[in-house]
Amino acid sequence: MTALTNQISTLLIESFYGRVCDHSDRDMAEKIISPSVEFYATGSEVPVGFDDFFNYVSMFQKSLEFKHVIREHLVVDQTALIYWLVEGCHKKELLGFAPTNKDIAYSGMTLFYFDDQNLITKAITVFDEKNFLAQLRNSPEQA
Q1: Which single residue of 12, 39, 70, 134 could bond 53 by disulfide (Cβ 3.0 to 4.6 Å)?
Q2: Average of pLDDT values for 79-102?
Q3: Distance CA 4, CA 76 (A)
Q4: Where are the beta strands (DSSP E) in the chain?
């Protein structure tokens, strides 16, 4: 691995996933994501900017109270492909679905592009939306 590849890997795993995704850390997001980022969510053909990108990531984290995220990654030059698995508990309303208090698990991939300062300039995320929504539709567990 080159120094740049190591730097991008560390940035993604420790900073983006460890701080921005898992803890909704906006200060860290502002340090590693370009203000002009283009973010494409699953099924979207139109990108959104920084605020919507951060809010999207935070919405999932706050609603599911992540237990942990398992990732695989491949970095080539200034592009990174991340495979992830999220496991959490549906504690707050998400996408119009009331909390189920059930464990939720879903997987997906994110493709990141970086500029010369190693800021994330573009991100494209896809995940198993059908399976994810089916889990949100389940009735709440009885206590």
Answers
A1: 39
A2: 89
A3: 9
A4: 33-40, 68-76, 79-89, 103-114, 120-127
DSSP 128: -
Which amino acid is located at 23 in the chain? H
In this predicted structure, the answer to whether residue 39 has a pLDDT above a threshold of 70 is: yes
- The two tokens of residue 85 are 């698995």
Q: Which residue has the higher pLDDT, 112 or 5?
A: 112
Report angle CA 62, 65, 67 to the nearest 5 degrees.
Answer: 145
Q: pTM of the full predicted structure? A: 0.85
Contact 102, 141 (CB under 8 A): yes
CA dist 117 → 66, 93, 103 (Å) = 30, 37, 38
What are the structural domains, with CATH classification, of the chain? 3-137 (3.10.450.50)
Instruction: Return d(Cα 88, Cα 67) in angstroms, integer.
Output: 5
* Alpha carbon distance, N-terminus to C-terminus of the chain: 49
Mean local confidence (pLDDT), 102-115: 92
pLDDT at 12 over 50: yes
Q: Two tokens at 139?
A: 């009735």
> pLDDT value at position 73?
86
